[in-house]
Amino acid sequence: MGFFGARHAVKSPPLPQRKSTTLRRLFDLDSQLDALSPAAPSADADTKQLLSAISYCTTAVFNFVDPAESPAQQDLKRRQLSHVLSAVRETKAPFFLDEAVWPPLLAMLAANLFRPLPAPAHPCLPPDLLDEDGGGWTMALAPDWPHLHVAYDILSAAVAEADERTLRRHIDRGFLRGLLALFQSEDPRERDRLKVVYHQLYSKLAPDRGFMRRQMVCELAHQVFDAEPRPCGAAELLEIWGSIICGFAVPLKEEHRVFLSRVLVPLHKAKCVAAYHRQLAYCVTLFVAKEPELGEVVVKGILRHWPATNCHKEVLLLEELEELVESLDVGDLQKVAVPICNRVARCSGSTNSQVAERALCMWNNEQFVKMASQCWEEVLPSIVEAVEKNLEWHWSKSVQELAASLKRMLEEAEPVLYSRFLLQLQRKEADMAEEERKRKMRWERLEMATAKL
User: What 3-state class would DSSP assign to 439?
Assistant: First the structure.
């Protein structure tokens, strides 16, 4: 039985062999699929092609002024720059994080961007010839812009895609100084691109922000202390400062208060302030909004730098004073209410109709009237004098109409005070007329005595 069972035992069928799922087998499958698929371009080949284009753009520099330059070569370089730009914008490119690409890329950008700027095309334009935006200073366009704008696009794309550590390793302070010097360019297109790039770098290079702020302060200080400053770039730098000031924490650091009192406020006295006044007023308003007590520093600085003969600048400063009055509470304006109203009263009697109209229109502002009402005794004498002289002597009919409207408003608000100060003004004018009559009589007697000799 045992023998039979042993001899004729039924064998079980063999188990099916399981396929291996090890990493080794997966790698083998990937290699087989790669062998069956068409050959893909090598990353090393792409990197070499990019480095070749960067090298060509570094050595081939054109100024578009020399007649010996070949238009074909210029077009070839433009295509090479476009190729570099496309490669940098490809965020998934394997060579983008390659450390071997950054140094030649920055060297190429420096060779194309950092160049001696031409002499000013409008070195000594008087302020009266400037338009409202200061455009008279920015009429010269860079002839090599077909290459420059692509170079700026490359730099902007590289900074946008790179992380902070990569930028800190490759962009040094010498490169930042070179970019800042380019704000002197008279081409507004270049300054606009430069503003975007410099602000991108400021937002990513956190350890260098203090250095970048100091360099921008030095650049703006030239507008204050240079005998013949170039206003090109001041507006763009102030736009960058506007976004920086928005991020300041309260209370402000002493460094930022010093910047306001020693740079921003003195910028009002520059004769080319019309080229950047809109941006300057915005920065000043941001400071006052963060710390209202700084309003006194700003107002006194503006009044101290008030122009004597520049009517267009007077209109700009009157507009800025009105904005400051609107942004502050009446309590914060107590210390500067009298000097502001006295200045507005003097401007109301200006022979320039634009200045007089702008000053008289400030009385339509409720906040300004509320500020003046806190100190009627101090401010009404100068206002009454300006209004009465405009009604009697001013050549502009619109100024006379505004003065008459202001007189009706003041007589309704403070009839007793207005009558009293009007009487004082009439007595003052009568005394001056009597003094003039006596002076003429003395002069006539002197002439008669001289004639008898």
Answer: helix
Residue partners of 352: CB distance under 8 A and separation at least 6: 311, 314
Q: For residue 195, count CB atoms less than 10 angstroms from its CB and return exposed for 0-12, middle for 13-18, buried for 19 or more.
A: middle
> Which letter does DSSP use for residue 262 in this model?
I
Cβ atoms of residues 308 and 345 within 8 Å: no
> 333 — phi, psi (to 5°)?
-95, 0
pLDDT in tens, 227-281: 677 778 999 999 999 999 999 999 999 999 999 999 999 999 988 899 999 999 9
Exposure of 235 in the CB half-sphere (CA atoms within 13 A): 20
DSSP letters, 193-234, are HHHHHHHHHHHH-GGGHHHHHHHHHHHHHHHHH-SS---TTH
Query: How many Å apart are CA 132 and CA 354, to the nearest integer?
Result: 14
Question: 219 exposed, middle or buried (CB, 10 Å; 0-12, 13-18, 19+)?
Answer: middle
Task: Give the C-alpha separation, 269 to 365, whole Å.
Answer: 26
- CA distances (Å), 438 to each of 24, 73, 441, 442, 451, in order? 119, 86, 5, 6, 20
For 108-122, 147-161, 313-327, 398-412, which range has the lowest pLDDT when averaged over its residues? 108-122
Rg of the chain taking only CA atoms, in angstroms = 37
Q: Which of 214, 295, 227, 306 is nearest to 261 (CA)?
A: 295
Burial class for 336, CB neighbours closer than 10 Å (0-12, 13-18, 19+): buried
Cα separations in angstroms, 84 against 72, 76, 79, 194, 442: 19, 13, 9, 19, 88
First to last CA, the chain: 179
Query: Given the structure tokens 């699929």, which residue do they identify?
Result: 33
